[in-house]
Design brief:
With about 375 residues, the chain is mainly α. Helices cover about 55% and strands about 5% of the residues. Strands 1-2 form a two-stranded antiparallel sheet.
């Protein structure tokens, strides 16, 4: 925000303080009438904004600095419990007169007398003494063993947050308020610093900083807001704001570019981590070289066996093999069709393999051959 004179607060800071104060103002007492109810003096006092002791409701509000921060920027919001308490049914007097007492009959009086005697008799019976409880510090237990605390509980107690002293808390609180540059009360500073400083210490340090004129203070009823001196900040023009926004936009684009490169490198690293290492590659190359040498020796041995076959004779043999393979395929198809027809008419359910095994029929699988890749 733009800077002001000594002790002056700019419009933005005034608006922020007004919003925080409005969020912490309690809801006024409601005085809605209810049908069939008789309003009393307490209700009319609540409508006027006073409690039963004659004190204004706005004056009897507790110090908001004692309330816990609800997580908002400017303090806790008003609770709905105030409205619920003010609409309590005890504030309304019943307009109906009390019912008249009826005379009890002798039979009813006798029954009531018996009921009163029964609890008295029960109270007269002696009660058994309760079993003695073992104290936590007692070392006696079943079997003579002693109970010891677990290391986890001892470590949890040792990890308590260390509270800063007033001397150490002063620079921490001052730096935090200066950095945030917005109004805070003591409770908000206490919560935002993760309770590393006690609440009374926060109040004392903030008051001392305000008295030393290192921080400015704005009192709104019982609320005390602390904020940095706005005169230390220079005026910012609209052109400067646009230039800063352009720089931020350029930095965001640069960040996205480098982030994309980082993601690509991470993926490349993941894929490379799944590949073979240099040692594994050398071992694999040596194995393949040995296999290649063996295959070359086998080819040379086969080539030296003799002369190649006559092409015409080879062609006739291939045609003969193909003819018998066609016959093989036709007969296999015929057998499968016949078997499927029989299985459809059978009452008992059987698979094709079960039926062919019972009938003694040989299949390609049982013979260990395949028509497509069969070579005589």
């Amino acid at each position: 925000g733009a800077g002001g004179g000594d002790g002056a607060v700019d419009a933005d800071m005034e608006a922020a303080i007004a919003i925080a104060a409005a969020a912490e103002t309690p809801v006024s007492a409601r005085g809605s009438a209810r049908s069939g109810r008789k309003r009393t003096a307490v209700n009319y006092a609540a409508d006027a904004g006073y409690d039963s002791s004659g004190v204004s409701v706005s004056q009897s509000v507790a110090d908001p600095s004692e309330l816990a921060d609800s997580g908002s920027e400017f303090g806790p919001a008003a609770s709905d419990e105030d409205d619920a308490e003010e609409d309590d049914d005890d504030d309304f007097a019943d307009s109906q007169p009390p019912p008249a007492k009826r005379n009890k009959t002798p039979a009813a009086a006798a029954a009531e007398g018996k009921k009163k005697k029964a609890p008295a008799a029960a109270a007269a019976k002696p009660r058994a003494a309760p079993a003695a409880k073992k104290s936590k510090g007692s070392a006696a237990s079943v079997g003579g063993s002693t109970t010891t605390k677990s290391p986890a509980k001892t470590a949890a107690k040792a990890k308590k947050v260390k509270q800063l002293s007033e001397k150490d808390a002063t620079p921490v609180i001052f730096e935090y308020v200066q950095k945030q540059n917005r109004p805070y009360n003591a409770v908000q500073v206490f919560e935002n610093l993760h309770k590393t400083i006690k609440l009374p210490t926060c109040k004392k340090v903030l008051d001392k900083l305000a008295d030393a004129d290192r921080l400015k203070i704005k009192v709104n009823g019982k609320q005390r807001y602390y904020y940095p001196d706005q005169s230390q900040y220079t005026d910012v023009s609209a052109e400067a704001v646009k230039e800063a926004e352009a720089v931020v936009k350029a930095k965001d684009a640069e960040f996205n570019e480098w982030n994309g490169k980082a993601i690509a490198l991470e993926r490349q690293g993941d894929s490379m981590s799944k590949e073979l290492t240099d040692e594994e590659l050398h071992a694999r190359v040596a194995t393949l070289e040995v296999e290649n040498k063996e295959l070359a020796e086998k080819v040379a041995r086969l080539e030296g066996l003799g002369q190649s076959a006559d092409p015409e004779k080879k062609k006739a043999l291939v045609a003969e093999v193909n003819k018998w393979k066609r016959i093989w395929k036709q007969r296999r198809t015929t057998v499968v069709d016949v078997v499927d027809g029989i299985l459809e008419s059978m009452e008992t359910r059987k698979t094709r393999d079960q039926f062919m095994e019972e009938m003694g029929l040989e299949t390609d699988a049982s013979a260990g051959v395949e028509l497509r890749t069969f070579v005589p």
